[in-house]
Description:
Elements: H1 17-20, H2 32-44, E1 60-61, E2 68-69, E3 72-75, E4 78-81, H3 91-99, E5 103-105, E6 111-113, H4 115-119, H5 125-128, E7 130-131
Antiparallel strand pairs: 1-6, 2-3, 3-4, 4-7, 5-6
Helix pairs in contact: 2-3
Amino acid sequence: MIKPVACPPGRQPTPRKSDSMAPRANPKKLNALQLKTLTILQYLTRFEGWSHPADENGDVTLKGLPSAHGNHFHVGDAVVATRDTSGLFNAAVYTVLEKRGLVRPSGNGLPVVTREGIEYETGIADQILHTSDH
């Protein structure tokens, strides 16, 4: 039988790595394209012109997806580089997001962003959504 080792007087045991770490970022292991797409979809849910009001579950159905304007897209009051939006039109991206419970299909062919999808912290909004202060 192994005996636990006592700490010397006046010292606290060192916490295990899992005890001291914050919740893991990107727990659903989305790749970069999936994260970018979800970030844009989340942002669209904030604007009445792009989305319907949330349903009783907190899910939001989108009214449309932005179209390119040169090398960028206008997403609500932000601008997004076209290179960051390719997932918006990629069925495989939506398949993964749906399997992870972050989006679901709607009757109108546009995505419904689930409450979990809206609340998911992608951590990249400030990197791809460029807003102006004027």
